[in-house]
Structure formats: structure tokens, C-alpha cells
Amino acid sequence: MQKNTILLDLQYLPSLQWFSKITKYDTVLLEASENYIKGSYRNRCHIAGAQGLLRLSVPLRGGKNAQTPIREVGISNAMPWQYQHWESIQSAYGKSPFFEYYVDDLKPIFEKEYDKLWDLNYDLVQCLVEMLDLDVTFTLTETYKKQTEDDVLDFRGGIHPNPAKSKADPDFAVKEYGQVFTEKYGFLSDLSVIDALFCKGPETVLLF
User: Which of 81, 77, 129 is nearest to 105 (CA)?
Assistant: First the structure.
């Protein structure tokens, strides 16, 4: 059966692969009814910094969040993590070809204090969809279903920091492009889509 719908977990500054998935299906379902899963991209992403691969992680309240509904997971704002993340992004991409073109759209999200991880991630994804000029509308799940309908591709957890836990994805192949620090570190894959966006601008969609 042809699968016309994809089901994805909502991630923090998702990767090129994540965005490639949402462009290939008629309906995009975001899993809004799961419990938080540690060790995933739900609260972290990777970018390419001056010292190589840089991991950005949103601090969460309450320590273990494994049994917390995803939309109730709280962000710990005790430390200025947003400032630190933005400083890292600006330091990494400030001299990239398209940073100045997109900075005014993205920066305000890092200047706003968020209480919930879901709200932060959703606003970032919506902002990135607009920056990429994608025609995508998200639908949120209303209940959690372990098994999905036959016409739904269940890709929850399919894009994971641990390659051993990632799902096979025959519809996506990594395409190398010029990165800010390519000459120093070579090409780094599995980065947040902002790496390609700041380096390639509107041509980012050609990497999907």
C-alpha cells in the first residue's frame, strides 16, 4: 500500500534528513501524545563549530523525563542556555554566506523564554519551514498509538544520535556541500538543517 502519511517525533532544530521526510508526504503527523524519550534529538542537535562537531542540548527540568508526556516536558531556564546556544550558532555561522539573510527570522526565538520543550521545538520548526519556503502543514496526534495504520510511515525515533538506533531510510542520501569549516574537518553529516541553510540558502531544498 502506498504510504501517504508520515509520523515523526518533533525535534530540536532538526536535521536535513528530518526536513527531507516532511517534503515527501501528503500529510505530516507530529507525535504529540508520546512520553519523552531520553537520548534522542528531541532536546538536542548538532552543528559544525570552529572546534569541530558541537552538540547543543536544551536543559530540562526534573531530571528523568522518561514518563513525562512530551508536551509537558519543562525547560530549565536556571542558566542562560538560549544565550549560549545563540552565541554558538553565531560564532559557527556568522561568516557563512546566508547568515545575515536569515538571522532576523531565527534570532527572536532565542530571545524568548520558553517554559515547554514542545513549544520551543514547534516554533523553531515552523520558522524553518518558512525560511525554507516549504508548503507543509503539520497535524498533531491526539492519542498515542503503538501501531499505525497501513498507509502511515512510522518514522518516530528513526532519526537518532545513535546510528545503531536509526531506521533505514532509502529515500534519503547524504549529499555533501561546502560547510564553513570543511577545509579543517572535512564534511560533517547529521547536522541541524541550519548548517545547510546558512551555507546554501534557498538551494538547501536541493539537498533533500
Answer: 129
Whole-angstrom Cα distance, residue 161 to residue 69? 21
* Residue with cell string 508536551: 71
Among 155, 194, 196, smallest CA distance to 174 is for 196
For residue 135, give every residue at least 6 positions away whose Cβ sits within 8 Å of its Cβ, in sequence order, or none: none
| HSE-CB of 57 using CA atoms within 13 angstroms | 8
Residues 6 or more apart in contact with residue 203 via CB below 8 angstroms? none
Domain boundaries, given as residue ranges, for the chain: 5-207
CA gap 117, 119 in Å, rounded: 6
Please tell me the pTM assigned to this model.
0.95
- The sign of the CA dihedral 91, 207, 172, 127 is positive
Render each residue's pLDDT in the chain as its tens digit; 208 residues. 567 999 999 999 999 999 999 999 999 999 999 999 999 999 999 999 999 999 999 999 976 666 899 999 999 999 999 999 999 999 999 999 999 999 999 999 999 999 999 999 999 999 999 999 999 999 999 999 999 999 999 999 999 999 999 999 999 999 999 999 999 999 999 999 999 999 999 999 999 9
